[in-house]
Amino acid sequence: MKKPAAFLGAFFVLASMIFGAAPTAASAPDPTDKIQAELILPRDFMPGKTVSTALKMEHAKGYHTYTTGEIGETEVRWELPSGWHTGNIIWPRAEEFGTQGIVAKGYTGTVCLDLPITVSANAKQGEHHTISAHVKWVACGEGICVPGEKIFRSDVVISSPLPQNRTQIFSFGILGAAFLGGLILNLMPCVFPVLGIKAMSFIKHSCDKKQTVAQGIAYACGIILSLCVLGGIVLFLRSGSELVGWGFQLQNPVFVWVMTVILAIISMNLAGGVEFGSIGGNAQSRLLRRGGILGAMGSGILMVLVATPCSAPFLATALSGVFVLPAWQAMLVMVAMGLGLSAPYLLLVVFPSALKFLPKPGDWMENLRKILAWMMAASAVYLAWVYLGEVPPDTGLVGLMSLVLALFGLWLMVNFKKFGRAMGILVLAWGVWSGVFRSGSVLGVRGGAEDIASLHEKRQEAGEWSPERVLKFRQAGRIVIVDFTARWCVNCLINERAVWHNDEIQKLITEKNAVLLVADWTNRDDRIAAELRKFGRNAVPFALIYRPDETTPRELPNLISVQQVMEGLR
Fold it and tell me: What is the mean pLDDT of residues 19-27?
């Protein structure tokens, strides 16, 4: 039985629709101004398989639509071929709205409703079918409720299902790609500072084979555990119909700020500015004696966190599997990735005799430690730059000052006793609270959604991507290039500097009257996530070239060359 408030909400919605929606033709609000709806279809429809379609709804500022169980909830009515079936709408988590003391639930901004469709088992490869969806909604805001509707019609072609043996080969192929991608990541600049620290630790304990083996296992466990946690978060968000991709944590300014602090602290420690052994006396010394194992596991966790910006090109196939495979298979992919990333150290565990080939400890390790301190500082500066790109300027200033406060507080803690240490704890807590609180405000934690909206408005440039702009330029007969990128993606920056800023490419774009649109995924953007999903992608970098003489765009590899782009333009 519905609550009385629900009846009052129903009355308000219906009254707004009857008395406030359209009194005359001249004053009737246009529903298309309030809601922009788009139906996103998958690329493959296979006999007997359930596919996921999505209804993307972009709400005008100040307007919302309703979720299931509310009067005026969004409805989708399908017209499908014989033998096809639809499942229930998978509703994302809804927000609460208060109107004249009445509470209802619904959505603002951009939201995607997951609409599963089961293809008939009797469908034949190559058959063409027409499917249509009649969508109805009620958009409320500014004291009125506006009913809207839209009909989508699409022609789909039945794809050929993979034979069972090919499916198994595909699954083993994903696991192999995950292992190989993780192994290659050991050579990437993102992870080199952490890799150097771990290698230095192995050399230091190379005379103690038992300790080295234990650290190697702990290091691998740290990598695999953290990857499985990331995979679990992805699966949880995926089950709630959230549009997420690899590197989603780097779209959160709070996470980026905290990672910047951690890397800065590690840099200070390597440089000798902060020695943690001075805290806690004998108790700390006992912890440090056991800390080799904990430190190794912590290094594994840190390795995963700093590897994310470099991982997409080498793990594209494997990462795609994580976002579409059943849960247990997706977790196997994460484990394979972790085994690849930790493989060099696991080899020392399996073959401890190889430790004799490592260089002997000596004074050179102190110089290496200083070099690694500078490299870790460079990583911290890079993340600080990413952070500044995700928040408004005033928030960025507060965040950087909070970073300095936190580091100063830590320095006081380890270099002074009693009163000085107490002051250090207070300053450190103040810095961390200020940084997290202020960074969280742009996520709406403290009502800072308007700040981030203002930031996006400032980013409106001639080359910004949107589906509407792609359609507009394609209808004008122009070549359209779409570069999916993010500030926190190292390989995206490589593509930008080496290819998109290349003089020859710029000249050819001008000659061909082409247009380069940038889909910036630095902050979370469900429109970009949905567009990537269309092409089976969930990570950046990625690029497309739409040509007037071709119906489908050309997909470029993750790391692209000038020659590949020139071939796509000519």
Answer: 37
pLDDT at residue 44, rounded to an integer: 76
Structure tokens that stand for 195 in this block: 């890799």
Stretch(es) of the chain classified as CATH 3.40.30.10: 459-569
Q: Are 451 and 504 in contact (CB under 8 A)?
A: no
Q: Give the C-alpha separation, 86 to 73, whole Å.
A: 18
**547-570 pLDDT tens trace:** 887 777 888 988 889 999 998 888
CA distances from 365 to 248, 270, 370, 377 (A): 36, 11, 9, 18
Q: Inter-axis angle of helices 393-415 and 364-390, to 10 degrees?
A: 150
Each residue's pLDDT tens digit, 158-208:
876 544 444 444 456 677 778 887 887 777 766 766 766 666 666 666 566
Q: Which residues contact 65 (CB under 8 A, 6 or more apart)?
A: 35, 57, 59, 72, 74, 106, 107, 111, 137, 138, 139, 140
pLDDT of residue 21: 39
**Stronger pLDDT, 380 or 348, i.e. the higher one:** 380
SS3 assignment for 53-72: EEEEEEECCCCEEECCCCCC
Q: Please tell me the predicted confidence (pLDDT) of residue 301.
A: 83
Q: What is the four-CA torsion angle of 66, 67, 68, 72, rounded to 10 degrees? A: 10
CATH topology of domain 459-569: Glutaredoxin (3.40.30)
Instruction: Find, among 352, 413, 92, the residue nearest to 239 by Cα.
Output: 92
**Is it true that the peptide bond before 344 is cis, omega within 30 degrees of 0?**
no
Query: What pLDDT does 136 receive?
Result: 93
Outline where 353-482 has alpha helix (H).
Answer: 364-390, 393-415, 419-441, 449-458, 467-475
Written as six digits, the tokens of 349 are 């565990």
Q: Three-state DSSP class for 489?
A: coil
Question: Which residues of the chain does CATH 2.60.40.1250 include?
Answer: 4-157
For 4-157, CATH number out of 2.40.50.140, 2.60.40.1250, 3.40.50.970, 3.30.70.60 equals 2.60.40.1250
d(CA 530, CA 533): 5
What is the number of other CB atoms lying within 10 angstroms of the CB of residue 208?
13
pLDDT digits (tens, 9 = 90+) for 429-444: 888 888 887 776 655 4
Q: What's the CA gap between 273 and 369, in Å, rounded?
A: 12
